[in-house]
Design brief:
By secondary structure, the chain is of the alpha/beta class. It has eleven helices and ten strands. Strands 1, 2, 3, 4, 5, 6, 7, 8, 9 and 10 form a ten-stranded mixed β-sheet that branches. The longest helix is centred in the last third of the chain and has 25 residues.
Length: about 325
């Protein structure tokens, strides 16, 4: 029987939790292969990858130069996959059921879905310590919906979780070849693009355990954390592109983006003395790009309210640095 699903695990300095993650993969029933993408790790991650590849021929490992982008590492694995479907598993997360993959594939065959979404359970320290889960208990998991309807379940807030979902590989073609630009924190937008482009989305019961890891790339206090403001800006543009008539939704996303950008500037002022010059330059570039995207996105909707908010942003002492950084990226 052909392996029609590839599990992709992007790995960056994940040695602390990687074996637990890979053991959850090894226990999976059915036919599958697993590509481990070493994203320039400097810890023992590669030796663990090598160990599992020698232990089980369903695993294969590839290495790439670190580009400060988890999203690119995932796409690197997707591009190398030969299967019709892919499933991305973060290196500090766990597939909770031994038949996780098999049940998602079965649901796909029953519904001819382009994406099958499981239950996502966020935990701290131990799997039994669940912080939250998506979707909630009231959600009808038996339904099959179109991609746009599924995407709207993630905006402005997530009511379904996309981690560990089964995805038709061809949906990723739009992301190849890799474009230039900031990829550091755009996973959320890419996930929504995949939903929007899908024809049918189904749901299944198996549990994907998402570790709340303060040391992960997207959680740690570092210059890269400020790339989240670009994510907010691109999400506003995403909504403008696909839902131009949903003015209230676009406005809500824009206000959220502005609030997060303003808070990011405050946060940066408190930690910039702890960053290197290179780190400071990266943060300033990210915030400047985020402000620029917001300003451009709102050109068609100029109003007194937005004029006041932009003016307030410019009153921050840091804005002079934004102007300098903005000049660098234009």
């Amino acid at each position: 029987m052909a392996k029609d699903i590839t599990i992709i695990v992007p790995v960056y300095n994940a040695s602390r939790y990687l074996k637990e993650c890979l053991e959850s993969v090894r226990r999976q029933l059915g036919e599958w292969s697993c590509v481990l993408v070493n994203d320039g790790s400097t810890d023992d991650s590669w030796s663990i990858i090598d160990e599992y590849c020698a232990l089980d021929d369903r695993f294969s490992g590839v290495s790439k130069q670190n580009e400060q982008s988890c999203g690119k590492a995932k796409l690197y694995g997707v591009k190398s996959a030969q299967s019709d479907f892919v499933l991305i598993l973060d290196a500090d997360d766990v597939l909770g059921d031994d038949d996780y993959v098999e049940r998602l594939m079965q649901k796909q065959r029953e519904t001819d879905a382009d994406i099958v979404i499981s239950r996502m359970c966020c935990f701290e320290n131990e799997i039994g310590n669940i912080v939250w889960s998506l979707p909630d208990d009231q959600f009808d998991i038996s339904q099959v919906i179109d991609g746009e309807s599924a995407c709207l379940l993630t905006i402005p807030d997530w009511s379904i979780g996309l981690n560990g979902c089964l995805t038709r590989r061809d949906l990723y073609n739009a992301f190849f070849p890799f474009s230039k630009g900031n990829w550091a924190n755009l996973d959320e937008v890419m996930s929504r693009e995949l939903l929007q482009k899908s024809g049918r989305v189904a749901f299944s019961d198996p549990k994907y355990y998402y570790r709340r890891n303060p040391l992960s790339v997207t959680q740690a206090i570092s210059p890269f954390l400020f790339d989240r403001t670009i994510n907010d800006a691109v999400l506003v543009q995403f909504a403008q592109k696909y839902y131009p008539r949903k003015k209230a939704l676009i406005g809500e996303l824009a206000q959220k983006h502005f609030a997060n950008l303003r808070q990011s500037i405050v946060d940066y002022e408190t930690i910039k003395d702890k960053l290197t010059d290179e780190g400071c330059e990266r943060v300033e570039k990210a915030l400047a790009q985020s402000y620029y995207l917001m300003d451009i996105g709102l050109q068609m909707k100029r109003s007194l309210i937005w004029g006041i908010t932009i003016a307030l942003l410019r009153r921050f002492s840091f804005f002079q640095h934004l102007v300098v950084a903005l000049d660098r990226i234009r």
